[in-house]
Amino acid sequence: MTNLRSKRNIFIFLVLLLVGIPLTVFLALKQQDIRSRAGGGGVQFEMSPQIATKAPNETFSIDVNLNSGVFSPAGLDTTITIDKDIVDFVSFTPASSFDTIINNSYSASSGILRITAVDVSNTPPTGTVKVGTLTLHAKNVGTATVTAQNDPQVVGLGQSTALPIGTNLNGSYTIAVPTPTPIPTATPIPTNTPVPTVPPLTPTPTLLPTDTPTSTPIPTATPTPTPIPTATPIPTATPTPTIIPTGTPIPTQIPTNTPAPTNTPVPTTIPTDTPTPTPASQFVGDANGDGCTGILDFGIWLTAFQQAPLPNTNPDLNGDGSINILDFAQWYNAMHDPIVVKC
Ligand SMILES: [Ca+2]
Ligand SMILES: [Ca+2]
Asked: Does the pLDDT of residue 214 top 80, yes or no?
């Protein structure tokens, strides 16, 4: 009895172990996945694929994505460092996520790619946004890293400052000479085994057929007469009782309500309108000072960002003393703020 109980306990323990271990591993991986997706609470750049092995002289492409998490990115200004000793830069093709590409330049001497892109449309992208496709050429054997720098500026809808940057998911690409597949040696063809000669067969004597006896005829059965069924009696119909209608009830008269006397309206004095102050937007988008925010203001910011400020304009929309993508964020969000006058 004790032995039986002990066996049963071992069986229960093993079942719990078999179910428990995969469940624990699954939950741990799920937690890790959630943390990975969150990207440390901010936006993050990610190379896809992150790891690959390529042969020398091979040209290959990787996607540069921006995982924007809960934010809606409206623009970015970032640099990506490419391991120029191992791979050569071929091209960077921007995706259509951002409609205005301001910078797409690569420096062969430093191995730095700069991408500046903004979206002027009314529908900013969300979630994981493809920034573009980076094409590289494997030059030397080794491991090439493709690293998004930690100083990118990403601006988003409703955000007057740069979005927080999480942990970037950089790329690592191994360039290696592929090991040749060994050619299998030919299998020797076996020589034919000599077929033994068969001794001549002794003829089997044929059996003579014996006479088949003729069958005895079976006597035919005499048919028995079928009995004629007697008629089934038809039941007589049961009479249905007639229902006598009850008298229609006479409706009782509902007394009419006596109308209550209406109150004589007391004339109210109309208060004079207190002017409500117009709330000011937290965003500034008017770069040319004409009292409204429009595409001309974007052009003024863009000119100042790429070249030099135009006279009698204020492209430093956030007033921090420099012209960068944060000023674009001011203009972009002013365009999306209903209280800002548009032109
Ligand atoms: Ca303006
Ligand atoms: Ca500024």
From this structure: no
Closest-approaching ligand to the CA atom of 299: 1
Around ion ligand 2, which residues have CB less than 5 A away?
316, 318, 320, 327
* Alpha carbon of 164 to ligand 1 centroid (Å): 29
CB atoms within 10 A of CB 281: 16
Q: How many domains does the chain have?
A: 2
* Residue 237 belongs to a domain: no
CATH code, 305: 1.10.1330
Which residue blocks in the chain are alpha helix, DSSP H?
2-38, 295-306, 325-335
Is the pLDDT assigned to residue 182 strictly greater than 50?
Answer: yes
pLDDT beyond 70 at 305 = yes
Query: In this predicted structure, which of 15-19, 25-29, 48-52, 146-150 has the lowest mean pLDDT?
Result: 25-29
Nearest ligand to the CA atom of 317: 2
Cα–Cα distance for residue pair 111/250, rounded to 1 Å: 101
Tell me the whole-structure pTM to 2 decimals.
0.60
Structure tokens at 217: 């005829």
What's the CA-to-centroid distance between 288 and ligand 1, angstroms?
5
In a domain, 92, yes or no: yes
In the chain, what's the furthest Cα-to-Cα distance? 140
Distance 290 CA to ligand 1 centre (A): 5
Report how far ligand 2's centroid is from the alpha carbon of 99 (Å): 22
What are the tokens at 70? 């809960």
Query: Which domain does 120 fall in, by range?
Result: 44-175
**305 Cα–ligand 2 center, Å:** 10
For ligand 1, the distance from its centroid to the CA atom of residue 285, given in whole angstroms, is: 7
